[in-house]
Write a structure and sequence with these properties.
elongated; binds zinc ion; 4 helices; alpha+beta; 17% helix; five-stranded mixed beta sheet
Length: 174
């Protein structure tokens, strides 16, 4: 059985209790994400670890993986994009605190005791990770005349950062 993820989470409470969540969400339940895709099939593997760091900042470290289908902008046919997202969000309840965050964090503004829809949080992170100009990595033929002849594939270089989060490799081994 696959573990079920809650629809709503209380991020601060999860962090205070050092809890982990793992499971799967459906691509079709993320309408904003689906607008960029050629179909709504598939699932997203979600591994999240909530905790407080050594100076008491509550955070969520997450790894999201999904295969989604996007239109190749060169040949205009669907292609599979392997998304693998590592995120590290620090929960802040005052915008003034954002500037003081350690730089490895992205700020996550919350109301204290806020309960937030998990889907929307995951959807935001996935949308940030979508390639701006999806293109097949291997050669594919330009579909028509707007092919510019400029073949430098600067846009498809996905920065593959090495994850610094030991906690995520623990999750992965489960
Ligand atoms: Zn293509």
């Amino acid at each position: 059985m696959r573990p079920k993820l809650p629809k709503e989470i209380e991020p601060l409470r999860l962090a205070q209790n050092g809890l982990k969540l793992s499971g799967e969400l459906f691509v079709k339940d993320m309408p904003r994400l689906c607008e960029s895709l050629t179909d709504n099939e598939g699932q997203i593997r979600v591994d999240l670890a909530f905790d407080m760091d050594e100076i008491g900042t509550p955070y969520m470290a997450g790894r999201l993986t999904a295969d989604v289908s996007m239109m190749c902008e060169r040949c205009l046919s669907p292609m599979t994009v392997n998304l693998s997202v590592d995120c590290l969000l620090a929960m802040v309840i005052s915008e003034r605190k954002v500037a003081a965050l350690a730089e490895q964090y992205d700020p996550w503004l919350l109301e204290s005791n806020a309960s937030v829809p998990l889907n929307a949080v995951i959807e935001d992170e996935l949308m940030l990770a979508l390639p701006l100009v999806p293109r097949h990595r291997e050669a594919c033929l330009p579909s028509d005349a707007w092919f510019s002849g400029d073949e430098r594939d600067v846009d498809e270089e996905e920065p593959q950062k090495v994850s610094p989060f030991a906690i995520l490799s623990q999750l992965k081994d489960k």
